[in-house]
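Data availability (excerpt). The following record was deposited with the supplementary files.
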Amino acid sequence: MAEPRKPAAAAAAAAPAAAPAYNFKVVLQTMAQQGGSDLHLKIGRPPTMRLNGELVPMDLPPLRPEDLRSIGEQIIPPKQRREFDDAKDADFAIGVPGVGRFRVNVYQQRGSLAYAFRAIAFQALSMEELNLPEKLKEIALKPRGLILITGITGSGKSTALASMLQFVNEHRHANIITIEDPIEFLHRDIKCHINQREVGTDTNTFAQALRRVLRQDPDIIMIGEIRDKETLEIALKAADTGHTVFSTLHTMDATQTINRILSFYPPHEQTDIRFQLSTALQAVVCLRLVPRKDKPGRIPATEILVNSAAVADNIRDMSKALEIPALIAEGTVQYGMQSFDQSLMNWYKQGVISYEAALFASTTPSEFALKVQGIAGSSDGDWSAVNQGAR
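Predicted structure:
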């Protein structure tokens, strides 16, 4: 005899209920409200944000595997899902209505999912709001040449670069093409005609986009990051043929930046690349974020190298080691260059940062300490710009 069918309601009740989607928007909103810059999610730990440079766990339960899978189902685009399946990590950007935009990296660790979110402002901030030196306005408006913004991860490179492009957008009539992975800051046309291309969405690769970019009549090209020799070669070619090229590198200071560029090439090509770099380079701007003393937050210490005749000669000369720190010291007054230590000294004298924070971020702590005591160090050049308010 056939067993009587259960009512539909009873069958539904017997089936296991689907787990509710993890409300990651609340976590992002909490981070945004508290001014966090980054959010880290991994199994067994509560959501953890970076606040003023320090990692701070949120007052939330530890994350479970199903929480991280739920987040992935909600935010990872199909293409990046396939990329993650192949490479075990992927980059993309998301916009959360009423909260903000975020750059996201999803990766695998110890066989489980993990996420790193970076908060991105909807609109680029001004250089004044970011406490960047006035010299950067002049550099941003250069009609041609390669301009590099460098620093370690999380030092504010993308934010500073977006601010410089925004300044150009407000003061020049130019055609700007950006190639980014992913697009971070959204720029609207003011005086400039801006086209933003995202790798994976608007173009397959950096190299493919760059090979065709010169056919798009650009005045200014912004490359999200120089990652390989091919990207560097196209950037140098564009800068050498009368275009302004902005890009970033993960390097600690101006000297390391020049060395990193040269390291892309074998020794037998060094002479040619040194000559090409000496003519194409306009400036290197290096950033370090330092905790403030006067109020919560961080402020950028900025090293600025301008490609003066002396700098170009030093880059070209294979027989000499790079003497970038000395050249920066010599070019402080005439060219507006400054070292990290000069920038730190300025913020310290204004009471913005503490002596301990300045010493920790200093390139030459022993000489910085002597300078604070009024004793000239062996590498001192002209520090008069510090007293004139250079930042």
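Summary of structural features: The two ends are 89 Å apart (CA to CA).
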